Amino acid sequence: MNKVIITVVGIDTVGIIAKICTYLAEKHVNILDISQTIVQEYFNMMMIADIDKATVSFGEIAEEMNRIGEEIGVTIKCQREEIFTRMHRI
Known about the structure:
single chain; 90 residues; four-stranded antiparallel beta sheet
């Protein structure tokens, strides 16, 4: 399995999850787990996805996530699971 971690942070607005999930579904990216919270007006989401069957490269997904984030006013980061895990070891 080729997992990626997608994080989203910003002011809460309608359609954030829909926009991201629609793009991922169109590219055949399987969402394995998703967690989101809203604290006052601040939206925070973490998603684990499998890109084994994706129709585009990881780089293209990361670039498009960045573009979508700019479009909807949030920050979206996309990292390979192994990099994310190494960065967050204690």
